[in-house]
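REQUEST FORM: STRUCTURE PREDICTION
Request ID: SP-0412
Submitted by: Lab K.M.
Chain count: 1
Length (residues): 100
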Amino acid sequence: MRFKYTLELLTVIAIVTFCAVFLYTSSTMSGAEFAGSDNVGSGLIAELSGTPLENFQPLIPQWVPPSGEIEACLFALQAAVGGIMVGGVFGFWMGSQKKA
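STATUS: Completed
RESULT:
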């Protein structure tokens, strides 16, 4: 028996599962702080090398945007370009399946 809405059903199940796992983990982690991989990695390198984190300098200096608004704008632009690329790939795949 073929289901007409298999992909939609799987999508809804995946979204509900993700939300349930996120809500469960966020409710059980009281007082936890989220840190980016840059902060955690720099701390581990400083700990292993014995160099204090204040004296640690990356090999490639990073550009710091002048304000938080510009940083948010660049992040949104990056997300939009990535979404367009992913949408283009999936659109190409779906279009090639309909041609066959």
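NOTES: The chain has a mean pLDDT of 83.
Reviewed by: T.R.
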